[in-house]
Amino acid sequence: MKPGKTGIRRILDATGYSLQGLKAAWIHEAAFRQELILTLALSICAFLLPVSIFERTIMISSLLLVVIVELLNSAIEAVVDRVSDDWNELSGRAKDIGSAAVFVAIALALFVWASILL
Fold it and tell me: Which residue stretches, if any, does this entry annotate as coiled coil (predicted)?
């Protein structure tokens, strides 16, 4: 185990880093802003729909999954861009695969919402 802060201090520091990450994503990532706003709006709608608690939970969870995958994709893109500005096949592949992950998450959310509402 590497030395470092433990207990409550570690949890507080980790929370601070997470909030910094959310702030950075909000400032630098248009897709994150769009997906987060859509997630908030659709989550409110989910509470107004005549669905069960379980269905509402699955609907909102599918939206949050899109946001999570977008954050991971943005992290991948930031690291790739940090390594080099030059085009590289592996860098391009990493970015494309991250984008594909977001696409699959969005498709899943659409499937969940359509399955419940239709």
Answer: none
